[in-house]
Amino acid sequence: MNKTFLLNNVRIVLSHTSHPGNIGSAARAMKTMGLADLRLVNPKRFPDPAAHAMSSGALDVLDNARVCASLEEALSGCVFTVGCTARRRDLSHPMLSARDAAPVLLKHAARQPVALVFGTEMSGLTNAELDRCQLLAHIPSNPDYSSLNLASAVQVLAYELRCALPGLPLPPADTPELAQHEDVELFYHQLERTLISTGFLNPAAPRRLMTRLRRLYARTLLEKEELNFLMGILKAMRKVD
């Protein structure tokens, strides 16, 4: 069975890209592997002639790219997000190699949109951006010089996604629907609000509690129905309070 249709549900998100040429090169990398959905979070310059020049014919990907005001907007509708980073962060989500992360991402793309997020050329993804991911991916490289060009990183991840397709088992048709990114973020907002109102969370000294809770719930991959239960519980707790 040809499973390239799964790539239609994979969104490439570039956050705060400085150089428009990297956007064009990333579009080219995407098109060579069959990816088309590009989201740009506050790029420094776009559209730009340098992006078109470096796309080498992938103008359709560039012309259809959506510029977003925030990562939240770029991830709207997604149910699973992988952040690409060169190093493990403190209290980070699980990290896999690009090769091992690819089938995990594609498994969820079988039914709903997913995203692969890349940070700035100089510093990568921020801790706040990584908090919005459920999994981290890294590209094994020379430990003495692990810096990859942004478009090169997109090319490697896109290649691994393409290579993972043939052996990928598709989930059963009755697999429960996962909660979308924006709904999960609303849950985190309401959870923090509730924890503050009960006195469990001191906003003056949060001690990274919400980061730890994000890790906990990210591991569960909340289903849409499960999230509705949790939101109902929080609502009831605030009424009692």
Automatic annotation (TrEMBL):
<dbReference type="GO" id="GO:0003723">
    <property type="term" value="F:RNA binding"/>
</dbReference>
<dbReference type="GO" id="GO:0002128">
    <property type="term" value="P:tRNA nucleoside ribose methylation"/>
</dbReference>
<keyword id="KW-0949">S-adenosyl-L-methionine</keyword>
<dbReference type="GO" id="GO:0005829">
    <property type="term" value="C:cytosol"/>
</dbReference>
<dbReference type="Pfam" id="PF00588">
    <property type="entry name" value="SpoU_methylase"/>
</dbReference>
<comment type="subunit">
    <text>Homodimer.</text>
</comment>
<comment type="function">
    <text>Catalyzes the formation of 2'O-methylated cytidine (Cm32) or 2'O-methylated uridine (Um32) at position 32 in tRNA.</text>
</comment>
<keyword id="KW-0489">Methyltransferase</keyword>
<comment type="similarity">
    <text>Belongs to the class IV-like SAM-binding methyltransferase superfamily. RNA methyltransferase TrmH family.</text>
</comment>
<dbReference type="GO" id="GO:0106339">
    <property type="term" value="F:tRNA (cytidine(32)-2'-O)-methyltransferase activity"/>
</dbReference>
<dbReference type="InterPro" id="IPR004384">
    <property type="entry name" value="RNA_MeTrfase_TrmJ/LasT"/>
</dbReference>
<dbReference type="InterPro" id="IPR029026">
    <property type="entry name" value="tRNA_m1G_MTases_N"/>
</dbReference>
<dbReference type="GO" id="GO:0160206">
    <property type="term" value="F:tRNA (cytidine(32)/uridine(32)-2'-O)-methyltransferase activity"/>
</dbReference>
<dbReference type="InterPro" id="IPR001537">
    <property type="entry name" value="SpoU_MeTrfase"/>
</dbReference>
<keyword id="KW-0963">Cytoplasm</keyword>
<dbReference type="InterPro" id="IPR029028">
    <property type="entry name" value="Alpha/beta_knot_MTases"/>
</dbReference>
<feature type="domain" description="tRNA/rRNA methyltransferase SpoU type">
    <location>
        <begin position="10"/>
        <end position="159"/>
    </location>
</feature>
<keyword id="KW-0808">Transferase</keyword>
<protein>
    <recommendedName>
        <fullName>tRNA (cytidine/uridine-2'-O-)-methyltransferase TrmJ</fullName>
        <ecNumber>2.1.1.200</ecNumber>
    </recommendedName>
</protein>
<keyword id="KW-0819">tRNA processing</keyword>
